[in-house]
Amino acid sequence: MEEDQWDLEKDLSQCLNKSKYADLRFVVGKDKDIFYAHKLLVSISCPYWRKVFYFKDWQSVRRSKFIDVLVPEIESNLFCQFLEFVYLRKANITHENIFGLQELSVKYEMPELDEYCSKSVYSCLSFHNCLNFYEKTKLLGLVKWSETILKYIEKNSASVINNQNCLVSLKKETVHEILSLQKLYVPEIVLFRSLINWAKNNQQTNSKHSQEFTLKRILRGFLQHIRLDLLDFPDIQEIRNYDLFSDQELFRTAIGLAKKNSFQLPTKTRANNLILTLDHNK
Hints:
The protein is mainly alpha-helical. The chain has a domain at 1-123: 2-Layer Sandwich (Potassium Channel Kv1.1, Chain A). 56% of the residues lie in helices and 5% in strands. The protein has 15 helices and three strands. The chain has helices at 2-15, 39-45, 47-54, 76-88, 98-107, 111-124, 130-140, 143-155, 157-160, 172-179, 188-206, 215-218, 233-240, 247-260, 270-281, and strands at residues 24-28, 33-37, 67-71. Strands 2-1-3 form a three-stranded mixed beta sheet. It is elongated and about 85 Å long. 26% of the residues are buried. Mean pLDDT is 86; it is low at 263-269. InterPro entries: BACK (IPR011705), BTB/POZ_dom (IPR000210), SKP1/BTB/POZ_sf (IPR011333). Residues 22-95 form the BTB domain. This is Btb (Poz) domain-containing 2a-related.
């Protein structure tokens, strides 16, 4: 049985986009690239084209070797992968074409292609694209995809949120959802710097409409995710410069950190100087 299936797959692969025995000629994209296909095979796999080929009056079509079907709105590389799935039930899905193929699965009424894309989401993710992917899946209402991407972000959070610009383009709701992940692990100072840059970007965007968009106001509800007790002394000083936490909060943090490291702190150190400064301001 397996051998028969393999022979069938091999035979179909030899028919894919070959003019021999084909009776369809898809003219695709702005460049009008030609893709050959078989009306019966395409119709079996795709209800959309079945309706076109078997429930419309094709008697008026001029009799020739091929029926020309114009598909100008779809990119050629996407249509190529669509045909490959029709014939072989597999496609070369990448981060560049997965959303396009999912859109085709809806347009052409192919739940099998939709499911195939869903199973391929994880393999298309990287540290650099997963955040934007997440926002796009939310916008498109792809719930399963969003859940998969969140798991990826949670598992690789330290690598995903690894620089001060990684959150800049995200919406407020997205940032909140990511920071609320139970197993999120990002060094506190890295997370703080990322939030500062994100807030500054929001500040610039909204400054045209209101002068009230201060960093403190924009970051309201987000600062609770910064665990001060995990900071180091230089980090506390950096955070203090933004006036987002009270000196009392930072003083308690510095005292706690000093106690943990008191066995190695001389009397005059940058750390102790910071504590004395905070204590004086208190």
